[in-house]
Specification:
With 509 residues, the chain is an alpha/beta fold. Helices cover 40% and strands 7% of the residues.
């Protein structure tokens, strides 16, 4: 009896005071569900708030081997020679300067008055000697040191790049066959090499592409008769003006020397070959199948557009005898190449061959890593018409096809921006920098009968006759379009950073 009373009292306490059993079961179930939900929430929340994977461009590998306590050079003058991988080098300068908001000495058009000797007034925004601080100068020019010194600071680092004159002649012939009269008349480069005097007239415009082109770009008389004393004087002048002369056949070694000279991080000198021409399957000129060969096909703007692609490709085949004839025809360039190739390897001797091999291996590995991240199809260059983004299609020049790249899809913003800088073609990149440096003022509608002055983006009035430089302004910015005459006589119509080429004869398009 006593036991039953105690049991009833216990049930009364539990059910009456605390609640029925089913309520306890429900409460326990609710607690279990809440706990499980909280646990899952923490897991999902952790996955959602985890910081995004760091961009490959912010990894320690981007810096490369230590350079000690030196400070990066930011005043740089690069003489952009023709057919020497110079477009790839210019892209490095553009990237470095844009990332650090440096000020570029940009041309009014796309070249700094080339092929005339450089004049300081060809720089956009120039207001007199040293009135404006310019950090980087690198667009095509014919070198004129006195005029360059009016633009660039006294502590500027001067450098340039050269190439074997025979390989340079092959590339020049491929690009400029329809531009240089000496090339246009020939059956092929071998035909020209056999008898260059038959085709070459020094008085004709654009024939400078056909003889001693390096000597011409350095501001010297490329038609002068060769002599050892003349060649030595030219070499001495270049050696005095430039602190470093790179060699395109040894492009990677050149980039390591440049990196140490400028005290730049490794990524600043890692590049993909730009403005490269499509090679024949068998290769041309011995090095064309390699990355250096593709990079060395870099060139300036110009050409006749896509319609020329239907014509036969230039015949670049050469016998060994014809190659020797081209060295004799370009004797001044050949002397420069041998002389500065010698000083280049003397620099590597001082640098140390073991260290050079190690750093070149790091550079090549880094290039492969960035290509794998940035580029579609394993980083293989593709024809321009296959590139979906019109803003990164390379401009087509002459009879050959200029290749470009496509970006890998799905990149984060930081990585995509850095990758885009590495593959942006020279013309588009110049326009991007120009728009940043000289933002355009909103257009003011003209009243009926009112003459609208032609004003440059920076607000300074443009001279209406620049024909001596090959970049004559022939139209204002009506409708957001600017027309210029390029160095080859064809008209350039620029609108919203898009370049359209029309023919000098016939209707503009």
């Amino acid at each position: 009896m006593l036991f039953r009373r105690r049991a009833r009292m216990l049930r009364w306490l539990v059910c009456g005071r605390v609640g029925p059993v089913w309520m306890w079961k429900a409460l326990l179930l609710f607690v279990a569900i809440a706990f499980a939900g909280q646990l899952l929430g923490v897991i999902f929340n952790k996955s959602s708030v985890q910081p995004a994977a760091r961009s490959i461009f912010s990894s320690p590998d981007a810096q490369g081997p230590s350079l000690g306590s030196c400070q990066p050079h930011t005043h740089i003058m690069f003489l952009k020679t023709h057919k020497t991988a110079s477009s790839t080098v210019l892209n490095m300068l553009y990237r470095f300067g844009e990332e650090r908001d440096l000020h570029f000495a940009l041309p009014l058009g796309y070249q700094l008055g080339y092929p005339l000797p450089f004049n300081a007034h060809r720089v956009k925004g120039y207001r007199g000697p040293r009135a404006v601080e310019f950090h980087i100068m690198g667009n095509h020019m014919r070198f004129n040191k006195l005029e360059v010194e009016k633009v660039m600071p006294a502590d500027t680092f001067y450098f340039s790049i050269i190439r074997d004159p025979v390989a340079l002649a092959e590339s020049s012939f491929a690009y400029y066959k329809e531009v240089a009269p000496a090339f246009r008349k020939t059956k092929g480069l071998g035909d020209f090499a056999d008898n260059p005097h038959k085709y070459y007239d020094p008085r004709l415009r654009n024939n400078h592409y056909a003889r001693n082109l390096l000597w011409f770009d350095f501001g010297l008389d490329h038609n002068a008769n060769f002599s050892i004393s003349l060649a030595q004087r030219g070499q001495a002048m270049i050696h005095q003006a430039f602190k470093l002369i790179l060699v395109s056949e040894y492009f990677d070694q050149s980039m390591i020397l440049l990196r140490h000279a400028l005290c730049w991080p490794l990524d600043a000198v890692v590049s993909f070959s730009l403005n490269a021409r499509q090679q024949k399957p068998s290769g041309i000129g011995g090095i064309s199948g390699s990355w250096v060969g593709k990079a060395a096909a870099a060139a300036g703007v110009g050409g006749r557009g896509a319609r020329s692609q239907a014509k036969a490709l230039p015949n670049l085949s050469l016998t060994e005898e014809q190659r020797e004839k081209l060295r004799q025809w370009n004797a001044l360039d050949w002397y420069l190449y041998k002389a500065f190739n010698k000083t280049f390897w003397e620099e590597i001797d001082r640098f140390g061959h073991t260290q050079m091999e190690q750093e070149v291996a790091l550079l090549r590995t880094r290039r492969e890593d960035l290509a794998r991240v940035c580029l579609r199809d394993g980083g293989k260059p593709v024809e321009a018409h296959r590139i979906r983004d019109k803003n990164i299609r390379p401009f087509q020049s002459g009879l050959i096809k200029i290749l470009g790249y496509e970006l890998q899809p799905g990149l984060d913003n930081a990585t995509r921006t850095a990758c885009l800088r590495m593959i942006r073609p020279e013309i588009q990149y110049k326009d991007v920098l120009d728009a940043k440096q000289f933002p355009r003022a909103p257009a003011i509608p003209a009243q009926p009968g009112q003459q609208v002055p032609m004003v440059a983006a920076a607000g300074s009035f443009l001279r209406q006759d620049l024909s001596r430089t090959g970049e004559r302004l022939i139209g204002g910015e009506a409708g957001g379009r600017t027309m210029e005459a390029d160095w080859d006589g064809s008209r350039l119509i620029r609108g919203n950073r898009t370049l359209i080429r029309g023919q000098e004869k016939g209707r503009l398009r």
